[in-house]
Amino acid sequence: MSNIQTLKMDVDSLNAFLQREFPQWTEEHGSRVIATTGDGVVVELPYSDSQLRPGGTLSGPTMMGLADTAMYAAVLSRIGPVALAVTTNLNINFMRKPEPRPLVATCRLLKLGSRLAIGDVALTSQGDTDMVAHAQVTYSIPPQR
Questions:
Q1: How far apart are CA 130 and CA 6, in angstroms?
Q2: Is the pTM of this model over 0.85?
Q3: Structural domain spans, the chain
Q4: CATH 3.10.129.10 fits domain 11-140
Q5: What backbone torsions phi and psi does residue 71 show, to the nearest 5 degrees?
Q6: Cα angle 39, 41, 90; round to 5
Q7: Which of 20, 116, 131, 135 has the fewest CB atoms within 10 Å of its CB?
């Protein structure tokens, strides 16, 4: 897409930033960026029994957290380490019961402006191509000083 900027943070720098700024998420849940793409990132979340809700499915908050983390990483991959970029909207549709295995979030930036970023996140169970959830996420980018 023409409005998506070039890469400013690679996989290693994104993971180091997330570990430094959000150790509670990366240490407790183990999520990590596994790839950058032409218009976004791919983030993986290891499976844990602590993510289950009654009925044996992964919880909605787990999937929402992964979608949000993927969008944050996608935005930072293009604008650099701006810790105060924040979620302004996250809409998620749960499509099918995820398998009890790692989740993969593939985030695609649709628009990256000076103040807002809009993205699309597809969540799948590792090794499967069928989406378990789909999120649309908007981030606010703080003004440059």
A1: 29
A2: yes
A3: 11-140
A4: yes
A5: -65, -45
A6: 90
A7: 20
